[in-house]
Input
Amino acid sequence: MQELKFPNKFLWGAATSAHQVEGDNSNNDWWQAENQGLLSHPARDAADHYNRFAQDFDLARELGHNAHRLSIEWSRIEPKPGQFDEQATRHYRRVLLYLREHGIEPIVTLHHFTNPIWFAEICGWENKNSPEIFARYVAYCNEHFGDYIKWWVTINEPTVYVLQGYFMGVWPPFQKNVPKGIKVLWNMAKAHRAAYRVLKKLSDGHKENFVSIAHNMAAYVPARQNNPIEKILASIIGYFSNDYFLRLIKKHYDYIGLNYYMVKRVHFNGKINFFIPQSSAKTDMGWEIAPLGLLQVLRHLPKYKKPILITENGLADAKDDRRWPFILNHLLMVHTAITEGVDVRGYLHWSLMDNLELAEGFGPRFGLIKINYDNQAREIRESARKYASIIKKNAIPVETIQPLLENNKYYPEVLRRYLQNIIRIKPQS
Ligand code: BGC
Output
């Protein structure tokens, strides 16, 4: 049987973030905003992952995952400036040890959108001292968790944080102030560079490590292929969204953490907007399902000469009727990129379990594992088992592609042709 093999030691798994799954993160700015009615959905217990992590990781293991991306909640570790919490520290050490003992490589994020309230009160990332303040917390984490961690993500999606929090004003701190947003982006870059230097100081018992950010990169394309203005706009917006931050942190990352979700079709009719063809398949969030865009982004990255870890890729799909073809198609793109020489080290699906989708609340269902929020019961989704079958083989069996061709309900013609091509290049034996 013909298989599309992945490299040895490929990291397979899923990702989560503390505020979205743990529950009871009452000391951060999101919780505060939720309870002031500025966000319509309080996190409350979320998926109660803080207490149920062992159960959740057992399920991940059952699904063959050998890696898991999680975040440490800064507001738990440092509840007051410069004061660190021993109980929270012990908790995360237990979490990390549990992962290690179960053969799951932890990929650890230190900042995933939420800030301690005290930090938000001193103007958060607008504060010129924010890089040093963050670096102090990072040094504590390195000292207390570094012996368990090889893969670090300092900050999740700085560009998205700024876009949502400072340009659109829909996430804390709800500002619509572009100059401030740019200042915040620069401070985050500075904070990352400082954190990088801290984390590269390995103390006793610490292994070699890989440090980066998780960077949201979409595929920017002109809405009309031959429209010269849209072409130029797509490359300018693409530069500022995808490349600019990597330039800011130049020489301060060991790999590229890639969060890929979508294609952005740049449309211009006097004003810029993003176009989604009516016929295209969409997630429950209304995002276009666009696996080819992942290939476009992966092909763009080798110029940075660093390995790539896909730190997030996923969809909201409550019915679980698109998740499996979504995963399969995206993995086909990853595999194609690898055969072209792109150094991809792993794939982490967003998300291990249903969670609080930020400002959208608990409606969108991103999980490989379904959560019943009435009783916190867990249930593995069918798509997760199919993903597990790929993990188990470390390969995509070619016969799994055929059904995609027969049922192209969710996939545009271009992808169909592409898949046919793969089969032609690699005929079944
Ligand atoms: C974020 C996650 C979020 C996901 C889906 C990513 O950009 O890192 O926190 O839940 O997108 O919207």
In short: Residues 169 and 175 are 4 Å apart (CA to CA). The mean pLDDT is 95. The first strand starts at residue 3 and ends at 5. The chain has one domain: 3-423.
